[in-house]
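Re: that chain you flagged

S.,

Sorry for the slow reply, it's been a week of failed gels. I finally had a moment to sit down with the sequence you sent. For the record, here it is as I used it:
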Amino acid sequence: MDDTGGRTFTAPGPGPVPGWRIAGWLRKWPLALVIVLGIWFFVPGSGLWYTVPAALQGRVYTLGAPGPIADPGLHFKLPSPIQTVRLFPHTRVDTIQVGFATQPPTRDAQTLGYTSGINYVLTNDQNLLHVEYTVQYTYPESWKQWENIEDFGALIRGAAEAAMRSTVASHSVDEVLTTQKDVVQREAQAHLQELLKAVDAGVQVFNVQLQSVAPPEPVRDAFAEVQNAIETRSTLVNQAQAYQNAKLAEAQGEVAKVIAEGEAYAAERVNKAQGDAARFNQLYEEYRKSPDVTRERLYNEMLQQVLPSVKEIYITDSHGVLQQLKLGQSGGQGTGSGG
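Prediction finished late last night. Pasting the structure tokens below so you have them in one place:
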């Protein structure tokens, strides 16, 4: 109490709450509770249902423990925080660029630009090369990178660089620059996939593409001269081989012709010899049967072969008279003289 000017005031104390006010609160609380529970249960993601968009995958975590995988569509779960859902890329194709960087090509793809602090790669013949390349990959099990890997960007960059360095180190400089680029790309892709599989990253590498392979800038001109010399040598070797092949084909043709002519001549001589031998055997058989007749016939046949080419014939008789017959002259007259 406060005595002021002879008047006394008394401060009101906390009196009892009227019964009508308590009843109003009890009627409002169930309605508010229903509204809160409705929001909790039916809001997408935190409530009883959730949707997974196309090109993504979802995974349900029950009190933090990994649960089933959810494909695109409508799904149901227990409300948060009992069960939570996390969405991951599934069909998206991402690209990492090592040694250079460009802008992301599309909105749905991610391109990680990375310029290595060490720009040169060592070949197995102790040459240095500057290598720029891209790696394309997708996410068949994308939740693994969130569960198992703390910094996926650093992992994919380091693994890509390690795979390329290891692959280039097993090839010569000429193979990497010219003859075996495809082989280097395939081997680097396989090696990178092994590295990512070893850490269970859930990533599928489907392409490693060399963009630029060049020697270091200080020796690039000298290297170009060496390459030009190698190409010139290759051109001269090819020309020499072409000339050799042409001459060899020509010589083989001549050899085949000579062999064919020799075989034909040999066959002709063999056939003639066989015919002569058969004729001689036939005459021998006839001679054994009739020696005189056969001898006379052979003599006449020989005269028929020899006389047509004779121009003059000299005949002597028992008296030594020599007669000369000039064949081919009119009258066939001969001259005679004593001997």
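What I noticed first: DSSP finds seven helices and 15 strands in the chain.

Talk soon,
D.
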